[in-house]
Amino acid sequence: MASKNDELMSFGEHLDVLRKMLFRVIGLTLVMAVGVFCMKDQVFAWLLAPHNSSFCTFQAIETVCRWIGVDFQFEPFNVTIISTELSAQFMTHLSTSVYLGLLLASPYVVYELFAFIAPALYEREKRVARVAVVVVYVLFFLGVLMSYFVLFPISFRFLATYQVSGMIQNTITLDSYISTFTTLTFMMGLVFQLPVVTYFGGRLGIVSRSLLKHYRRHAIIVIVVIAAFITPPDVFTLILVALPMYLLYEVSIWLVKDTN
């Protein structure tokens, strides 16, 4: 029979364990951040890759169109990215290194958090927590990949090349580029958590399979509104975002048990 850890720690002992855990987490994050900082050329080549028409996503779309017999090609574009403040490039390099360092260290961070709370869980709760952590990570990184390869490059191309007049030349600041990239990527990572949220909502009795099926049409409208909010006013990009969101909703219906 599963039972919780019989050893009870004092409040001071818990604080000591927490302090050591935070030191390990911060230490690994700093090591990762320093590693990213030292790989400046490779990291920013990856981050800045979507800013012109040679990016792999545009090439892949053109290749698929040729396969299906459609004569389609993106107009070549190369947006100029500038820095307008003396310390902007260094501060962007530093902050980006910290963000990516934390992202790379995040599996270990979650492991440490799980190890900290695990003694208070029953064996069955531990198994559920392990599966939940893995699923959350997989979905989050799928959202990150979706943003990097689909949402951000197409959004950037539309917004960075849009002109109200030919007399106005678009030049994008580095800070604007990186902040838009991180915001969209983080939001897509959160959006892809829909099945996890729905699953636990079902476990708590908040939602059921029949309820999700009943409000499917309403959900489609909400998904389109959310997709329109996080994408530029471009129907093609909206569809590219709304479609996986709807598929996640269908997966959520399959995951949730019916209360009847």
Topology of this protein?
Elements: H1 11-38, H2 40-47, H3 56-67, E1 80-82, H4 88-117, H5 123-161, E2 171-173, H6 174-191, H7 194-203, H8 209-214, H9 216-230, H10 235-255
Helix pairs in contact: 1-4, 5-6, 7-10, 9-10
Explain the overall architecture.
By secondary structure, the protein is mainly α. It is built from ten helices and two strands; from the N terminus they run H-H-H-E-H-H-E-H-H-H-H-H. It has helices at residues 11-38, 40-47, 56-67, 88-117, 123-161, 174-191, 194-203, 209-214, 216-230, 235-255; strands at 80-82, 171-173. The protein has a two-stranded parallel ribbon with strand order 1-2. Helix 5 crosses helix 6 (174-191) and helix 9 crosses helix 10. The two termini are 30 Å apart.
Quick synopsis:
With 260 residues, the protein is mostly helical.
Distance between the termini: 30 Å
Q: Encode the helix/strand succession as letters.
A: HHHEHHEHHHHH
Largest beta sheet: strand ordering:
1-2
Rg (CA only): 23 Å
- What is the 3D shape? flat
Structural class: mainly alpha
Helix content: over 70%
Notable traits:
mainly alpha, 260 residues, 72% helix, 10 helices
